[in-house]
Amino acid sequence: MTRKVLVIGLDGAPYPLVKKWLDRLPNLKKLSEQGAFLPLLSTIPSQSATAWTTFKTGTNPGKHGVKSFKTDDGWLSSSHGPDPFWVVLGEAGKKVGVMNIPGTYPPSPVNGFLVAAFMTPPNETKFTYPENLDLGDYKIDMLFERYSFIPSDTGIDKLDFKKELYDVTDKRYNTALKLMDEKEWDFFIVSYKGSDSVEHFFWRDMVDKDPTWGNAIFDYYAHLDKIVGGMLEKVDLKETTVFVMSDHGQDLIQSKIFHVNQLLLDKGAIKLKKSAGTKLRRIGNKLLSPLYRPEGLFSGKVKWLLSLESLIDKKASIALLDSDFSKDWDGGIHLMNLKGDRKKRTRKKLVEILRRYKDPETGKPVVKNIYNREELYNGKYASSMPDIVFQLHKDYVCNHRIQFRTIDRQKKARITGSHTLEGILFAAGNLIEPRIKKEDAVPNIVDLAPTIQHILQVPAPDYMDGRVLKELLTPEEAKKPFLTQVWPEEGTRDKFNWSKDDEELIKKRLMGLGYL
User: Fold this and answer.
1) In whole angstroms, what is the distance from residue 424 CA to residue 327 CA?
2) How far apart are CA 420 and CA 425, in angstroms?
3) Number of CB atoms found within 10 A of residue 504's CB
């Protein structure tokens, strides 16, 4: 029997939203009726760089070491983490096609073809393998650094954004169909990043039912549903297993900021440098903070004047928020200058402080979930992950600044949607057990790689953390043993170093997307 796998990524697609709209998305609805539609849990943190790296390697962040697009040696590239599972498939003789998965620049050799994603520098011409791959009128991605999203009378920023969003999406779709037709493949994956982007910038409009932009997100999902339908017409579900998935979910960013380092300072875990400048800044902080208003004319300058994070004495402090790891609802704290029992006692104490901390305005807890590092991560890079990991209740986002108030209200932001844990997973095909119920399966993004390798009958690397989602498979398929093989955990790719010019371009792009 011929076995093929098609994966369609809808970046950032949240389970609650897609479930709400499912009856209005006929192609996704049909997939759910033919197979399964479930939440897909993301990584912690639910940042795209972390989640997609976990997806493609089948490993937890402690093994691949990626906690954001900013890494210890620059920016995320294809050289980070173990080999993607499609490399393993290729070594077994399977033909693979990969399009637009983060962390694939520079393009590495595969047994098939690969098109790198948006981390490709804007002026780069070599972003495919092989180099002469014919992509038609393809465009890598939007130039996010162009869009300020400052409200204006004309709304021209949003109009331009929508036009470019659909243009990039349609060109990616047409190129995907072209490659599916022209190339031999056993495994093919393409991700559409536009679902994540439209949610980032239009979620508030959707919630407020803005007359012009309130339907922007649904309209784009309806467009994606047609794209899914077009790609499904290219395959036979009797020989192809189809997954439609997202790397994480998304929701509305709320109005309150939790300044974690301010709490650590108040509790004595952070110490400031002893100098006249520090004393003056603290006096100014105390005098001016009652006058600060988030929507004030000079709010940004006042916040900068009152901020104390540049005065942290890292040699004397014992805890600090990891600003790369911590994004919106996810946060992580590193313990410093501590060993042995003192470190254990300090962690236990800080965990209790976080667990018990309540919003002074409402009296409600701020932290929803809290973990010790060992509960979430294992592997070579586990020590680089925060000692304490926490998730906030929906009303709050975390921030690294020491900002005169532990809980602060933020001014209106241009990016109004951000990442959550609950993404989506559709599965269909003759190897998929139809009509799986939500309560019967709890898939995690780390499970997709070993599941795909199991379906394609290729032994998976023995270091993978994920499991085969046997509850999604037919009884006959689920009974088959999960085969593994020895594979180098460090990967087989050469180390890649960014040029300074490219680093600056990528930094601007990530700032435009709100990742920095």
Assistant:
1) 21
2) 15
3) 12
Stronger pLDDT, 442 or 2, i.e. the higher one: 2
> How many residues make up the chain in this entry?
516
pLDDT of residue 146: 63
What's the whole-number mean pLDDT along residues 174-180? 97
Task: Please give the sequence-ordered ranges of beta strands (E in DSSP) within 138-248, or none if there are none.
Answer: 187-192, 240-245
* pLDDT, position 275: 77
d(CA 100, CA 503): 19
Coil, strand or helix at 169: helix
pLDDT at 211: 94
Query: pLDDT category, 147, cuts 50, 70, 90?
Result: low
294 burial via Cβ count (<10 Å: 0-12, 13-18, 19+) = middle
- 449, amino acid identity: A
- Kindly give the interhelix angle for 26-34 and 216-232, rounded to the nearest 10 degrees: 50
Torsions phi, psi of 432, nearest 5?
-100, 130
DSSP 389: E
- From CA 264, how far away is CA 35, in angstroms rounded? 48
Mean pLDDT of 314-339: 94
3-state secondary structure string across 369-386? EEEEHHHHCCCCCHHHCC
Q: Determine the Cα–Cα distance for residues 288 and 302; give it in Å rounded to an integer.
A: 8
Amino acid identity of residue 43, one-letter, is T
Beta strands in 64-150 (DSSP E): 70-71, 74-75, 96-99, 112-115, 128-129
pLDDT the model gives residue 221? 98
Q: Residue 492's pLDDT is what?
A: 73
304 Cβ contact partners less than 8 Å away, ≥ 6 residues apart = none
CA distances from 271 to 267, 278, 320, 403, 469 (A): 10, 11, 10, 15, 48
Residues with Cβ < 8 Å from 107, sequence gap 6 or more? 78, 114, 115, 116, 126, 127, 128, 129
CA separation for the pair 291, 15 (Å, rounded): 42
Between the alpha carbon of residue 228 and those of residues 134, 172, 216, the distances in Å are 22, 12, 18
**pLDDT at res. 436:** 66
Q: What is the pLDDT of residue 16?
A: 96
pTM, to two decimals: 0.92
Quote the mean pLDDT of the chain. Answer: 88
Report the distance separating Cα 222 and Cα 10, nearest Å: 12
Q: Could you count the other beta carbons within 10 Å of the beta carbon of residue 179?
A: 22
C-alpha to C-alpha distances, 120 to 143, 144, 238, 497, 504, nearest whole angstrom: 11, 13, 36, 13, 12
Neighbours of 240 (CB within 10 A): 21
Whole-number Å distance between alpha carbons of 143 and 133: 23
pLDDT exceeds cutoff 60 at 293? no
